[in-house]
Amino acid sequence: MQTLDNRVIEVREDKFKTSRLIYEFRPFIAGVIQKRAGRFIEYGVDEEFSIGLSAFKEAMDSYDREKGKFLSFARMVIDRRLIDYYRRNSKERTIGLGDDRLSGADFKGNDINYKEQYGINEEREGRIIESIEYRAELEKWGINLEQLAEISPRSSSLREEYKEIARSIVNDSSILKTLMETKRLPLKKIENNIWVHRKKLERGRIYIIAMVLAIINNLSYIDVSGGGDK
Amino acid sequence: MEIRKGYCIILTRDGRFLKQVIPPGVFEVGDEITVSEEYVYKTKRIDISRVKTLSLAASIIIILATVSFFSFWYLKHYTASRSADAESVGVYVAEEEAEVADADADAEMIVEEKVTEAVEKRTIIFEETYYFREQEEAEEDIEDTLSISYKIIDDISLRIKLRNISSASKFDGTLTMVMYLSDGSESQAETVSIDELEPGEVTENPLFLKTEEVKLKVQITGSTY
């Protein structure tokens, strides 16, 4: 699977793919902004979000592997641009001599030692990327996280049952193929292969699909292997 | 997984999606937090049964009122129109024959126009300003030759499409897109060269949107041949 760092370098000449990547990473951008702003930031409403999007694009344009991991670099660029923005809009100006606004070309990882301040450890970076990619995958299926939070089974035994069904679907190539092609659970086929009541399947349909996608996309931080809780 | 106003959506290790109340500006996507039932976010719920009853009552009233109105209107007009029907059939047949003759004449005209269109070289100069925050998408034809449209995509970019809608002419020219801020100052501009845009062909150009931008000016100059 292509790493994020490679993907950034590959897509930045293509405007559509760049837009797509920025769109997928909106939650990450919003998170960085919210941490600096200390409040919730709304897409398309708060100006900080626009600053964040521009900064993320700037990070994409100026990124190279010598700068380390892309997400750490992007986080730094977003944060610095927000600082610039808040300084410009602050009533009490505290800037000293000269203009310390940095251009994209000035973001040299070695000079600024940003890795200590903004560096994201590998495990956390993996979670960020997996979250973003999983969310994007769910969106392609018309499923959003809000919906999943509403219908997610509260009982752990029911969740295990649904995960078991998801594993059976992934292991059966014919059912999986039908699911991928039609984007619907082939309830009758599943009923015939696995001992489960149709009503149960219907009620857990969206959650089961989410678990199938988690297995296919190797979502590492939830346990879908059938070995119990991590 | 996602941060919303006042809460976040998390995915637990055993696969439960959950809404959890969090303080603003503390967490980012990818952070691990400890789940607590005390901080589970509960969505406010409306009393659905009451809404259903009121909706049903309103629907019945509307249906009864509509049926009564149309019944009255139909009865009033039905008796008057019955006698006029017999005469109108003969007139209708004659009109149909005239329509067929017109259609043949139109077909001849279309063939002539196509031939003329193919040969004629025309200059096109077009300029228009769109307030895309008020109207998120729009389409406009230019002299029956080109069609310009724009659409906001994902709140991130503005996609501008130029399509050749003629049947036989190609188009060569330039497309200039200028974005303006609310104070009227220019924010960004881009000029794209269009070479041999064939009939039916489309060229797409995305512009990366900034929150403060409110207006798009489009200028097209070129010629068809």
As a percent range, the share of strand residues of chain B is: 35-45%
Unreliable stretches of chain A: 92-105, 108-112
CATH class of the largest domain in chain B: Mainly Beta
Number of domains of chain A: 2
User: Could you tell me the radius of gyration of chain B in angstroms?
Assistant: 30 Å
- Most extensive chain interface and residues per partner: A-B, 57 and 36 residues
The CATH fourth-level homologous superfamily of the largest domain in chain B: Apoptosis, Tumor Necrosis Factor Receptor Associated Protein 2, Chain A
* CATH architecture descriptor text of the largest domain in chain B: Sandwich
Total of DSSP H or I helical runs spanning 4+ residues of chain A: 14
**DSSP strand (E) fraction of chain A?**
under 5%
The coarse silhouette of chain B is: flat
Radius of gyration of chain A: 22 Å
What does the model show?
- The complex is a heterodimer of chains A (230) and B (225).
- Chain A is an all-alpha fold and 230 residues long.
- Chain A has 2 domains: 4-120, no CATH class; 143-216, no CATH class.
- Chain A is 66% helix and 0% strand.
- Chain A has 14 helices and no strands.
- Chain A has helices at residues 4-11, 15-24, 26-37, 47-62, 70-89, 109-112, 114-118, 122-140, 145-151, 156-171, 173-182, 187-193, 198-203, 205-216.
- In chain A, helix 3 (26-37) packs across helix 4, helix 3 packs across helix 5 (70-89) and helix 4 packs across helix 5 (70-89).
- The longest helix of chain A has 20 residues, at 70-89.
- Chain A is elongated and about 65 Å long.
- The model of chain A is unreliable at 92-105 and 108-112 (pLDDT under 50).
- By secondary structure, chain B is an alpha+beta fold.
- Chain B folds into 3 domains: 2-41, no CATH class; 46-120; 122-224, Apoptosis, Tumor Necrosis Factor Receptor Associated Protein 2, Chain A (Sandwich), CATH 2.60.210.
- Chain B is built from 1 helix and 11 strands.
- Chain B has one helix at residues 48-119, and strands at 2-3, 7-11, 17-21, 122-130, 137-142, 146-153, 157-164, 171-181, 186-197, 202-208, 213-224.
- In chain B, strand 8 and strand 9 (186-197) form a beta hairpin.
- Chain B is flat.
- Chain B starts with a strand and ends with a strand.
- Residues 114-119 of chain B have low confidence and may be disordered.
- Classes of the chains: A mainly alpha (230), B alpha+beta (225).
